[in-house]
Amino acid sequence: MIWIVMLVSASLLLLACGTGGKVAKERIEGSSLYVKKVEDLKEDFLLGMDVSSVLAEERSGVRYYDFQGQERDLFTILAQNGVNTIRVRVWNDPYDESGKGYGGGNNDIDAAVEIGKRAAAAGMGLIVDFHYSDFWADPSKQMVPKAWKDMEIEEKTEALYEYTRDSLKKLKKTGVKVTMVQVGNETNQFLCGEKTWFNIQYLLNAGAKAVREVYPKALVAVHFANPEREGAYLDYAWHLDYYSVDYDVFASSYYPYWHGTLENLSDTLSEIAETYNKKVMVMETSWAYTPEDSDFSGNTIGEGSAVTKNYPYTVQGQANCVRDVIDAVAHTTGGVGVCYWEGAWISVGTESWEANHEKWERDGSGWASSYAASYDPNDAGKYYGGSAVDNQAFFDPEGHPLESLRVFNLVRYGNDVEPRPDAIGDTRLVVDLNGVIELPETADAVMTDNSREAVPVTWQLTEAEKQKMYEGGPAAYTVIGRAGDLEAKAYISMVEYNFLQNDSFETLDLTGWTVTDLGGADELYVEEKATDSLTGVGHMHFWSAKANSVEFTLEQELRDLRPGAYQYAISIMGGDAGEQEIYAYVKLNGEIAATAPMHITSYGSWDTGRIPDISLGEGDVLVVGIYVKCQGEGSGAWGKIDDAMLNSQG
Ligand code: CA
Known about the structure:
This protein is an alpha/beta fold. The protein is 21% helix and 27% strand. The protein is built from twelve helices and 27 strands. The protein has helices at residues 54-59, 74-80, 109-121, 153-173, 197-214, 232-242, 262-276, 315-330, 353-363, 380-383, 407-410, 463-471, and strands at 11-12, 28-29, 46-50, 85-90, 125-130, 178-183, 219-224, 249-253, 279-284, 335-340, 421-424, 427-432, 442-447, 452-456, 458-459, 475-483, 486-495, 514-517, 523-528, 538-544, 550-558, 564-575, 580-588, 591-598, 607-616, 622-630, 637-648. The strands form six sheets. The protein has an eight-stranded parallel beta barrel, surrounded by six helices. A five-stranded antiparallel β-sheet has the order 18-21-26-23-24, with no helix packed on it. The longest helix is centred in the N-terminal third of the chain and has 21 residues, at 153-173. The protein is elongated, with a radius of gyration of 33 Å. Bound molecules: calcium ion (CA). Calcium ion is lined by residues 293, 295, 297, 299, 386-388, 390. Residues 293, 295, 297, 299, 386-388, 390 line the site of calcium ion.
């Protein structure tokens, strides 16, 4: 046993207070989740969750459970666990001509009313996210609603105002507590089919005007993505100010996989808050608790995703990420909240793609249905399917909550359990076929507090298996190990190891090599030209029009090689040599020990000189090289040298 799992018996009884919540918060007893307290977190700091897909999920049979295993209303579960605000996206008309839903929850204003009512019943406020589109609006697309397709900007502005006003009135009539309204979603310079700030300002102000009239206490938010793009947010904020757009909150999506550092986010939002006297927040964020997909429909993030990975894809990693985003925004000037995106969009079934597909099409519980093709043929119409974020939810595929859901309560108090290994980093080894497979005794663990530590690993690799690897030629293997109750993986590449530096001249210079020009050739250098190289793009080039001027050596010295037998090889091609003397050679401690004659004949005819059975003792200095001497004829001797190799023979 290499670490101690602390079983914390302390219990906290947290009761909702001050925010008007009717739901008693979850009793947290001995949670194993490590949570570093967010200092000075305001009582009214917005801890939000977008659950826009929930109605469609429930139509598809999804059920949610609390930590006691009782089936419960999702909103109650979230409120119990510290979420105080629900976010819902609204599309004008996400249905085709025959009334088939586009998917993504089929969220029109009626769906938002239902979700808002249930949020209110659980004591939570609502952020209304108007996309002003009939389907997904994001930095790559802001398609105009079907009904507004042929409108000029004046008419569209009026339509947007009336639509916003009437939609909010519907919400108000049912007693929904709307705390914030977004005029547009991730509107990086585009909105509702408009592409100029001059036109967009009218739309934003029309939306804001409707919010002020219907919900005068609600905050008006603008929402952008890609805080990592240098200067972009300051440019948006400048334009909003220049056109006197009426808004309260400058909101950002922040997906840590792509969106730069938290420090950059915080600095950028602070500057906007200070310059323009605005509130700021993270409107969308998420982190994967597992790389695995659970609904047969590919996810945005998986094992091999080429993204910034500051946290492991574990339940604890998800909690640490959320905690750090909350901490960053809470300590940003004007920071009012953090909203997690679609934390309950789990699999609609574990049986098969076909069974799930039927539900996604029927209920709109996938990110898009095939019916979306009529509106968005290039994206949704082609790639429609299920949840792309089921591995970023706070519920497992059966609807049971993950321990990470407790983070929204625990950020206020901290949960200082003893850090322990949470995930083991991969070990990667390149081993010479004649070398020794030596797996390290430790591997890098990501601890539950997101620090890194080396921990002991026991590898499951028998001597017989090792022998097979030595005898199996160049190949790749995965070896499994255990570090306590965690799995470790070692990826081993068995290779014919080349001990030479810059063996194929791909550094495009003489790194590792020494050239001695004995004849005064016109040209003698490393050249970049793929068609003249044996492999890659670099090779050693020589040419000289003067007779008897091509004479040189090219060599590399090696010290501290393990004693044993080695083999050396190098290749050459060329022509117009006339009388020639070319050979590969090896020197041992300054003395020529072996040579192998070589010849150049014509373009593309490579000749390889090989010297096997080079026996090295302890402390021997080895030099490998090639000697080239050409008398020259016609237009002058020329040639190319490439791909030197020095391998162990055991
Ligand atoms: Ca999926």
